[in-house]
Amino acid sequence: MNISINSMEDLFKYSYLLPHVVLVDIDKRIGDWLVSGGNIEDGYIKQQFRYAEKVIKEVQKCIKKR
């Protein structure tokens, strides 16, 4: 399953696939960015989405090995 996260809605949709500590970290980073004046469309937010995609991909690989 190839997952693409391009919005906060996508992140929420696939959040169940992320380890809790990763989800909390991403949430804090995005929240801090927005509070400091950043925009939801900024590259930094997109970077967090890509990180979530990579973690999900690794989690899925680990599950397949079982």
TrEMBL record:
InterPro entries linked: DUF6877
Pfam families for the chain: DUF6877
Occurrences of domain DUF6877 (ranges): 5-57
Recorded superkingdom: Bacteria
Name the record gives this protein: DUF6877 domain-containing protein
Protein source organism: Anaerosalibacter massiliensis
